[in-house]
Amino acid sequence: MVTNSAAWIDAPYAELVVRDSPYPVPGGGQVVIRVEAVAINPLDAIVQSNGKLMYGWLDYPVVLGEDVAGEVVEAGPGASRFALGDRVVGYAIGLEKGRNAVAEGGFQHYVILDEALAAPIPDEVQFSEAVVLPLAVSTAAAALFESSQLALDYSTLGASPSRSDFVIVWGGATSVGMNAIQLARAAGYRVITTASPRNHARMRELGAEAVFDYGASDVVASVVEKVAGSRVAGIVAIAVGSAEPSVAIAAATGARRVAQTSPSVSFYDQPRSGGLSRARAKLLARLIWTNVALQTRCAIRGIRARFVWGSAIAGGPVGAAIWTDYLPAAIARGQHILGPRPRVVGGSLEAVQEALNLMRTGVSAEKLVIELR
Ligand SMILES: NC(=O)c1ccc[n+]([C@@H]2O[C@H](COP(=O)([O-])OP(=O)(O)OC[C@H]3O[C@@H](n4cnc5c(N)ncnc54)[C@H](OP(=O)(O)O)[C@@H]3O)[C@@H](O)[C@H]2O)c1
Question: In the chain, which residues fall in CATH 3.40.50.720?
Fold first, then answer.
């Protein structure tokens, strides 16, 4: 009998604990993956830091983790996209409402994926290289292409048609940003981005036409000047505090839509324990105030700034366009660069908690990855 184990979070705010977990049973259109590598996302740390303030539907204990890569070992009814033994990367979606927060949580040796949220990995690509993609590429796609967000045209995704419109990606060196730059380019849009100077060359390699330092006092003016005379199809605002300058750019360029992936305050700035501490009360007050101020500015200027959910692409046409139609060929041809680069920080599930703590201290243009052997 195959045994399984997971890095569990037993209660809101708790440290992860590794122990046995049930071997998962795939449903229709699902596959079981033997996980070879997982990556860490801010979402995992945010859920752990926030208790029930976010993802209040989670019924603890649960298994965190969205990014997995491994081999297909079982297929559920009607799942025919992959053969047993196929190497795949995929988005484990267990944290989302209505999903199975144990069987579909990524931090375990055997996990269930929707086959529609997975893509094959070529033999020459390591699991640790591919595993950086899932939540980041899904969120980038949701921001750019979902009709409630920037609603960009993805009908010719991958053919890189030539368009004159710009897309601005604020925070290009984030995991979401590196994928947003590439997806926008693959859909034919011209891209301007922001990043720390040490990452500017990388941003250009990914397809950005110009890069500006988000820390510079004149960054908003520089971006506005660069796109002067052209249409801006939309702005993707990534990283804490990115919505404010993005809305300022939208106001100055006539862009009507901002897709906001991050809040204006950091959810890490609070104790990892329950109750309404001073720090948490301050954080919530700042969160409400910044959001009201931002939405007021948007209303005055006729701009629509909406919060993005990466999971929005699941089960819809954008999800199929990315995971089935675009990524398999784009990864195989090296057309979609696997970014950010992985930093392998452990070789077992026991390393996941440490990796979450490390991520809270900040990473630059890299993804923390754990290989499971
Ligand atoms: N809503 C959703 O569904 C969803 C899904 C995934 C992620 N997110 C959110 O999106 C954000 C990015 O996540 P991620 O995993 O892509 O992050 P990440 O890879 O951990 O981001 C690290 C990068 O953030 C950049 N950065 C930090 N502050 C910045 C700022 N003020 N402006 C521009 N860039 C800044 C840094 O760039 P430099 O190194 O160049 O300084 C660094 O490389 C997080 O806030 C995360 O919570 C939301």
Answer: 137-310
